[in-house]
Amino acid sequence: MGKGRKARQSKDTAAKLYLQNPELVADLFNVFTFKGERHVSADMLKPFSTEDATGNLDTAGNETTRQLRRDVSYIAYTDGGAVYFLCIEVQSGPDWTMPVRIMRYDAARYLYQIEMRKERGKATLLPVFTLVLNLGKGPWRGPRSLHEMMGDMDGKLKKAVSDYRINIADPYTATRKTLGMLCTEIKDVLIYFRASKDRNGFMRFLKSSHAASLSDRALMLLNTYLDTKLEPQTNDGRKTEMCVAWQYFEQQAINKGLAKGRKEGRKEGRKEGCEETLEKFVMGSLENNLDYETIHKITGLSLAKIKKIAASAKA
Prior knowledge:
Elements: H1 3-18, H2 22-33, E1 45-47, E2 51-57, E3 63-69, E4 72-78, E5 81-91, H3 98-117, E6 128-134, H4 155-160, E7 167-169, H5 176-181, H6 186-195, H7 199-208, E8 213-214, H8 216-226, E9 240-241, H9 242-264, H10 267-287, H11 292-299, H12 303-314
Parallel strand pairs: 5-6, 6-7
Antiparallel strand pairs: 1-4, 2-3, 4-5, 8-9
Helix pairs in contact: 1-8, 6-7, 7-9, 9-10, 10-12
């Protein structure tokens, strides 16, 4: 098995395990699909088959059947019975075919319902809500609707074509207000993804967040998708402090800066570039009220050097 395929399978496994928690799924749909309205709760959700069948034509024109497999699938119940399906597709990068893919997944689920209800005659269908969860290393760059896939087209003609829009949970483009509506651990996970591109933003998050720890499955998700090596910090192995997570993230950034310096510059230039990067980090950390000892553990700089940088910043 190639490294790329193995990495994709690891990501799929981590995401599916994490989203086995119905509280997280309900939270995502309430915020990103239902725009903050609490339509679904965890106790309404039951796991449902992730497989649906769809018809295809082979090269000879013969009809064949293909199994479609979703990443996450639930069915929601109330006292009156089943009310709708909730499905999630997790993406680690943009896919320009996504609107058609989701349309196909949803159509297959509707066809499944029709087949199951044929013997009862005419019957209503349960709505299928699908959410695309972007866990890539940057904002979603793919199309969000069928119309976007069609490129330049006469406006009147485009209006005559039925559109198919997809719902996307994108931590990089979601507003602070939107992320603030999340009420489970998924809020901190998505903020972590978002902050992985912004050191200062993450420092502000550490100071304001009320959720200071993450579960094992959340750590597995972050490690798999963001190439970190976060580990639980308590004896029971269930939680980790976000500060420790950020320490590793910062050390990674420093290591990348060193590697880049080795590639691009002479030895003297590399040393100066590294020192400049460390000094900027120290000053930013001091501005965000990190103590000398914590900065020492993150950077490896001596306390005397840190104090010297602090003094020069005040001068």
